[in-house]
Specification:
The complex is a heterodimer of chains A (237) and B (550).
Chain A: E1 8-9, H1 24-37, H2 51-60, E2 74-75, H3 79-111, H4 120-131, H5 165-178, H6 190-195, H7 229-232
Antiparallel strand pairs in A: 1-2
Chain B: E1 10-15, H1 19-30, E2 35-38, H2 53-58, E3 71-74, E4 82-84, H3 96-99, H4 114-118, H5 133-148, H6 175-186, E5 192-193, H7 232-238, E6 242-245, E7 249-255, E8 261-267, E9 273-283, H8 289-296, E10 322-328, E11 347-348, E12 367-370, H9 388-397, E13 401-407, E14 417-425, E15 431-436, H10 441-460, E16 465-469, E17 508-510, H11 525-541
Parallel strand pairs in B: 1-2, 1-9, 2-6, 3-15, 9-17
Antiparallel strand pairs in B: 3-4, 5-11, 7-8, 8-9, 10-13, 10-16, 12-13, 14-15
Helix pairs in contact in B: 1-7, 1-11, 5-11, 6-10
The chains are: A mainly alpha (237), B alpha/beta (550).
Chain lengths: 237, 550
């Protein structure tokens, strides 16, 4: 069946609380790592947004790749597209499984304990070692120092197939924090709240016209050239 | 043995159902011709769309999966091509008009005669178009009114004459648009509402966009965004003369002993193979897939690919490039920009479009402001990637950032081309398109100058920090694929004639952007549709009377 005919399966990323793919230890380790990537401060962070659940569901299989448009249920992929995603998920599973082993190895080396038991400072140090770069310093409009973030994709599709474990983990953490809640993260839209994105209450609300951003636009703006003779020539009766 | 029946022969077979293919289908089927459309992608409907950033930008629901449909790129003949998702463009019913932002400016009159204006530019294959603005104007108007557009006619002081205004009023202004307009006015420059492929008032049974903010790269679950999916294709289907078959992958155009096209060979979604015969074949696969299909269609009569006796199929490829400057604003000083509100684009300017040689380069592009992404993919160069600094930067600048972009008017160069990769195959076992491309020196000069200028505009707008994002090479990030079956009067230097008919195969046509003799500095879809309508009219009035029944 072609993509347009994929059926919707009535499942949710929240059907069970805990892991589907990860072991309990893997879950705890990734949860701790995401909490250093988007930490909790006076606003919630990755831990409160349940980013680890987002990552677990992404790795669980092709059943949680594409939600139904209205966010109720998930599309059952078929054919070549499903096989491509199986391959992609396999590769990511390997990155995560091996990455978690590496986090623990570095933790043992540094402080004699697995990653999840380290202090936040030691966890940061392990992530620095893993990323082979220092933890990004505070960004300032005046300073010339630059972080590692790249240009926006020009709103083109983003391909993460070429990322290795650490940058993949960072990107997936962002995706879980800022993506639509149906994917299992961004619990209660807290990621959006942190940055001031007044996003839709549900995917369905983006379809039926009930969600609009008009209040953030300049309603009723008059164009300065509305009365220009060249414009009036084309005025409709 | 195939259990399914071979299809009945028809008048016209159209490969692809995007901007060009759907326009041709509408015009020909409304005139009573029997038309079959073969689209390799799915026929997704508006109800498959919603405001889901991960689905449409990160998991690529409507973009080709590079694991299934890879392409390769190399800068020149001396280097090995590598697999890349070059010029991702939705391969679905509706094609590029499903994901697009719907920018529909018209070409400038100068765009039709660059060779006359600039002469022989070394290293480039600059030519005049074999048609003029005056020939295309009636079709621009037809498409603007049939397809559904919005804008303020007469407000672009650089625009050529037009016979009629837009059917619906300009779309509402965004904060980013206002910021851009204010800065441009301060610098003595002009702006005007972006002409948009959208309806802003009830029109032809359609309702305005909900302004849910999910616009550029998102198909519209409503009927506000104009796409061929919700306009020309339903028009064509309604005639009863257009049989559109999605998930059907054409692998070869067939020719008879007389050198005329007889039809196409294709596979349906189950992998079953069919031959669809027709009296004419119109190829509308886009500027990369179209030359690929012609080059794959080798036969005794056409050993180098169909219609490629001149060796020009695939050459002179241009892709535009979207480059920009990012501006970061101080939240203590500036009001929020709310870049996610509205529909990505709002205003634009043509003040830098026409050549001014004092800038150190020829040609120019339209410029337009926009947000720098929805929450997940929002970024700027130098953004901290993790830790407290990352969270702080997201909080500080998500609502206090914007960019001003350009569409590079790149020069055609004969060696820049699309051909068949000798080793890489797609999931169907067919050779993939290989792109060989190095920008002309004028492309770099134009791009650097305009990106710097856009930075000055951001500073005038109050940005505290401006970050230029310049190209290192062309990546195909505009989804504009142009020039690969060049239109011209001379069969030795072009592939199709002024009616987009093959010089060598009299019943074979190319109606997508492959025909563009030069790139222009604007989005091509409106011109693709207007030209497809013009050439389909020619088929109706002239060519079809010469078709034989065999």
């Amino acid at each position: 069946m072609g993509q347009a005919e994929w059926v919707t399966v009535p499942i949710s990323t929240r059907d069970v609380d805990g892991p589907i793919f990860f072991t309990a230890h893997e879950w705890d380790t990734i949860e701790a790592a995401t909490a250093r990537i988007i930490p909790t401060d006076h606003h919630p962070g990755a831990r409160e947004a349940h980013v680890v659940r987002f990552i677990d569901r992404m790795l669980a299989g092709t059943q949680f790749i594409f939600p139904a448009a209205d966010g109720v249920g998930w599309l059952r992929m078929e054919g070549l597209e499903e096989r491509a995603w199986q391959e992609r998920i396999e590769q990511r599973r390997r990155f995560y499984r091996e990455g978690i082993v590496e986090l623990d190895r570095l933790g043992q080396e540094r402080a004699g304990a697995p990653f999840v038991e380290l202090s936040e400072a030691d966890q940061d140090a392990v992530l620095e070692q893993l990323s082979r770069a220092e933890k990004p310093a505070v960004y300032s409009l005046d300073a010339d120092d630059v972080g590692l973030g790249g240009a926006p994709a020009g709103n083109q599709p983003v391909n993460e197939d070429f990322l290795e474990f650490f940058p993949l983990l960072v990107l997936n953490t962002r995706q879980g924090f800022y993506g639509d809640p149906v994917y299992g993260g961004n619990e209660n839209r807290i990621g959006w709240g942190v940055i001031g994105f007044d996003g839709p209450p549900s995917l369905a609300a983006t379809m039926d016209g009930s969600y609009t951003t008009r209040t953030y636009m300049v309603e009723g703006a008059e164009w300065p050239y509305d009365q220009h003779p060249e414009v009036l020539r084309y005025r409709r009766p | 043995m195939n259990r399914k029946k071979q299809p009945e022969p028809v008048d016209v077979v159209i490969v692809g159902a995007g901007a060009g293919g759907a326009t041709a289908a509408k015009v020909l089927s409304e005139a009573g011709l029997k038309v079959v459309g073969l689209e390799r992608g799915p026929w997704l409907k508006p109800e498959h769309a919603s405001g889901d950033e991960l689905k449409f930008l990160n998991r690529n629901f409507i973009w080709q999966d590079p694991k299934i449909k890879p392409r390769t790129y190399r800068p020149n003949d001396r280097e090995e091509a590598v697999v890349t998702n070059f010029s991702a463009t939705p391969q679905v019913v509706g094609g590029g008009t499903t994901h697009w932002g719907g920018m529909v400016p018209r070409m400038a009159e100068s765009d039709f005669k660059l060779r006359s204006l600039h002469g022989d530019v070394p290293g480039a294959s600059l030519v005049d178009w074999p048609i003029t603005y005056d020939e295309l104007e009636p079709y621009y108007t037809r498409v603007e009114w049939e397809f559904g557009t919005s804008g303020l006619a007469g407000a672009n002081k650089w625009e050529a004459w037009r016979s009629r205004g837009y059917p619906t009023k300009p779309s509402p202004l965004s904060q980013i648009g206002r910021t851009f307009a204010t800065a441009m006015a301060k610098l003595g420059h002009s702006t005007f509402p972006m002409p948009q492929g959208m309806v802003t008032e009830p029109y032809r049974g359609r309702e305005p966009f909900s302004e849910n903010g999910f616009w550029q790269q998102y198909p519209d679950p409503g009927s506000g965004k104009s796409s061929t999916l919700i306009s020309f294709i339903p028009d064509a289907i309604a005639t009863g003369n257009y049989d559109l078959r999605p998930d059907c992958y054409v692998s070869e155009i067939l020719v008879g002993k007389d050198g005329k096209a007889t039809g196409v060979r294709y596979q349906d979604e189950d992998g079953d193979e069919f031959v669809q015969y027709g009296k004419a074949v119109i190829v509308c696969g886009g500027g990369i897939e179209t030359p690929r299909l012609l080059l794959m269609s080798k036969s005794a009569l056409f050993p180098d690919g169909l219609g490629n006796g001149s060796g020009m199929v695939g050459k002179n490829a241009t892709f535009h490039q979207y480059s920009f400057s990012v501006g970061l604003f101080d939240r203590e000083v500036s009001d929020p920009l709310y870049g996610w509100a509205g529909h990505y684009m709002s205003l634009c300017s043509f003040d830098f479009y026409e050549t001014d040689e004092s800038r150190g380069h020829i040609l120019g592009s339209l410029i337009f402001p926009s947000m720098i992404g929805h929450p997940v993919n929002w970024s700027f160069p130098g953004r901290p990637t993790w830790g407290q600094a990352a969270k702080d930067a997201d909080r500080e600048f998500f609502n206090h950032s914007m960019k001003i972009g350009i569409l590079l008017h790149d020069l055609p160069v004969e060696e820049n081309r699309v051909d068949l990769d000798p080793t890489v195959r797609d999931a169907w076992g067919l050779p993939v398109a290989r792109i060989t491309h190095t920008p002309h020196a004028n492309d770099f000069a134009q791009e650097r100058w305009q990106v710097r200028k856009n930075g000055e505009i951001l500073e005038a707008a109050g940005a505290k920090k401006v970050i230029p994002v310049n190209m290192e090479r062309i990546t195909g990030n505009t989804s504009h694929e142009l020039g690969t079956t060049r239109m011209g009067n001379d069969p030795a230097t072009s592939v199709v004639d002024r009616w987009c008919r093959s010089h060598e195969v009299p019943n074979l046509y190319v109606f997508d952007a492959s025909f563009f003799p030069t790139a222009t500095g604007i989005n091509p879809a409106l011109t693709i549709m207007a030209n497809a309508w013009r050439c389909a009219d020619r088929i109706l009035h002239v060519d079809r009377h010469g078709w034989t029944e065999d």
